[in-house]
Specification:
- By secondary structure, the protein is an all-alpha fold.
- It has one domain: Orthogonal Bundle (Arp2/3 complex 21 kDa subunit ARPC3).
- Helices cover 68% and strands 2% of the residues.
- The chain has eleven helices and two strands; from the N terminus they run αααββαααααααα.
- The protein has helices at residues 2-9, 13-17, 25-44, 59-70, 72-87, 104-107, 111-129, 136-160, 167-174, 179-189, 192-202, and strands at residues 46-47, 56-57.
- It has a two-stranded antiparallel sheet with strand order 1-2.
- Helix 4 (59-70) crosses helix 5, helix 4 runs parallel beside helix 10 (179-189) and helix 5 runs antiparallel to helix 7 (111-129).
- It is globular, with a radius of gyration of 17 Å.
């Protein structure tokens, strides 16, 4: 009981769910793989938009939730694995009639978003390790910090790494259409971890 209470007082949700205070290598590997698989599934829920080359997906929410639940290091590793699978040519990126799978996807208009996922997951996880995921408002802050990284990287890549020249054009194509929905997703996602912590404490 004391060891369980200690896990609930410190660490990430993954630590609290683990059978022991120290996570085994197999448990960590399974958690990383689970985070990667969830990101792949979220990528398949993709809606192309006629006014921007960037599709609407559920990936940012999954990346941030995964980072917060797994912690900084494991959350980042799960996203590095996701990108590595994509580079290897597996169909893990969002389906697109014009954007190819494989490493070429990282050079296209969505490359900045994809390449930001490890850092966004790391930051969300780092804040969660400091207890930001225990309460709703601080959970929103952790998710918001990760989302800011994703949008900043995505917009800058659109502006300076693709033929869509200019920061203002990149903001119109890569930020404004997605911001309302993604802010709503952050508010919704931020409820998951505090509720999970509360459930574990009740148990």
């Amino acid at each position: 009981m004391n060891s369980r209470l200690a896990r609930l007082e410190s660490g990430t949700l993954l630590h609290a769910l683990a059978a022991g205070a120290d996570l085994s290598a197999l448990f960590r590997a399974a958690a990383v793989l689970f985070g990667t698989v969830l990101t792949i599934v979220a990528a398949q829920i993709s809606i192309p938009l006629p006014f921007t080359p960037v599709p609407f997906t559920l990936q940012p929410m999954v990346v941030l939730l995964g980072g917060a639940a797994l912690g900084a290091r494991l959350g980042a590793i799960s996203q590095v694995l996701y990108i590595a699978l994509g580079i290897a040519g597996l169909p893990v990126f969002a389906a697109s009639p014009v954007l190819p799978q494989g490493i070429a996807r990282l050079l296209g208009p969505t490359g900045g978003y994809l390449m930001s996922y490890p850092l966004a997951a790391f930051v969300a996880g780092l804040l969660a390790e400091r207890g930001f995921d225990r309460r709703y408002l601080t959970s929103v802050a952790a998710m918001g910090a990760g989302l800011a990284i994703i949008f900043t990287s995505g917009v800058l890549w659109l502006a300076f790494g693709t033929p869509l020249v200019g920061l203002s054009a990149a903001v119109r194509a890569g930020l404004i259409p997605f911001l309302p929905a993604d802010i709503l997703k952050v508010f919704l996602a931020a409820t998951v971890l505090p509720v999970a912590w509360r459930f574990l404490k009740i148990r």
